[in-house]
Amino acid sequence: MRRYWLVFAQAVTVLLAAYFVVGTLKPEWLGRTGAAVSHGVALVEAPAATVSGPPPPGSFRQAALRASAAVVSINTSKAPERHPQANDPWFRFFFGDPGSQPQSGLGSGVIITSDGYILTNNHVVEGADEIEVVLNDSRKVRGKVIGTDPDTDLAILKISLDRLPVITLGNSDALQVGDQVLAIGNPFGVGQTVTSGIVSALGRNQLGINTFENFIQTDAAINPGNSGGALVDVNGHLMGINTAIYSRSGGNMGIGFAIPVSTAKLVLEGIVKDGVVRRGWIGVEPADLSPELMETFGVRAKRGVLITGVLQNGPAAQSGIRPGDVIVEVAGKQIANVSELLSSVAALKPGAAAKFRVLRREEALELNVTPGLRPKPPRMPQQR
After folding, report:
1. Phi and psi for 19 in degrees, rounded to 5?
2. Which of 149, 153, 233, 325 is labelled catalytic?
3. Which residues contact 184 (CB under 8 A, 6 or more apart)?
């Protein structure tokens, strides 16, 4: 019996020794998660993963892959402004040659068609003498401005390259507060960057950024250089063009704004088709309802926009709109404030009649208003 016990003990000892040696030198033989030895230190490593494998739960990998290829970096340069006395020898003797270095700018853009149309912000390319577009695959090409729309801060560029990646346009009207989104761009010129967040609010306006404001607000990190980049949903579909941030430091503070893709599509179609964006205009002076104005005009409406003035012989006057009327609906869309009225009228096709619902004192009216073409705002002289 003792002999059998000794044989058993020796066999167990040999097996344990072999297990220790194999577990230290060849852990994969034992099916472990990968114990590795580096300079005498045992490390535990996860199994090797492949890029083509399924993403882990909660990953935005697929959305980022689908959208990022169509997001570009935009580098701009602008010739320096010459001082009026720059050619004066005495001026140059005392002050040198001021402003001799070209001004450079940085932004992002999104390729939206296979023939090279790019959406970006107007402020990214405004005043630029040269525009360089850098694709995510490192190809570089000069960009040409097809048209701009300062009222929405959008611009359309065109590049000539083959095999262009194109982003898929989504339905920004279907977005809801709390939906997850990704912001893709080139912040601070560090290279393409993807950040994530949620839709914090919809329909942001009266921010004083653009004439027509209907922003998507997000807490996805947006920084200088992200302007003109893509805001996409979890499927990688374009929902907006990142355009501005609220910041006291110049960096991200969790409040960013994007122009909805629905607005960008209208601007794109107008610029490509007509060279400009044609917007409706009716010639009124609107004001948000307030107790003082309601008492002055004898208005008892609970919602809508008060018309305090009507341009003589303008579209509104010719259609019967009077001072003191309250516009509550335009082409089937309810109106709650001046910004909504401005956007709804601008979306109307000039020359095509639209139905307006109006409250006049206690009487409800339905008027057919034929909007005219919105005049361009006068350009203010530059201060030098």
Report:
1. -65, -40
2. 153
3. 64, 67, 68, 71, 108, 192, 193, 194, 229, 230, 231, 232
Query: Which residues, 6+ apart, have CB-to-CB distance to 54 below 8 Å?
Result: none
Q: What pTM, to 2 d.p., does this model score?
A: 0.73
Q: Which of 200, 227, 262, 319 is catalytic?
A: 227
Domains of the chain and any CATH numbers: 2-44 (no CATH), 66-158 (2.40.10.10), 172-274 (2.40.10.10), 280-373 (2.30.42.10)
pLDDT of residue 383: 35
Q: What is the rounded distance in angstroms from the CA atom of residue 339 to the CA atom of residue 305?
A: 10
Band of pLDDT at residue 89, cut at 50, 70 and 90:
low
**CA R_g for the chain:** 31
Whole-angstrom Cα distance, residue 255 to residue 226? 13
Q: Catalytic site residue 52?
A: no
- Out of 68, 73, 108, 123, which one is annotated catalytic? 123
Active site residue 153: yes
Q: Which carries the bigger pLDDT value, residue 94 or residue 114?
A: 114
Tokens found for residue 211: 């004439």
39 counts as catalytic: no
Rounded CA separation 220/258 (Å) = 11
Distance of CA 243 to the CA centre of its chain: 5
The residue assigned the tokens 């008027």 is 367
Which tens digits make up the pLDDT trace of 321-371?
999 999 999 998 989 888 888 888 988 889 999 999 999 887 889 999 999
pLDDT at 55 over 70: yes
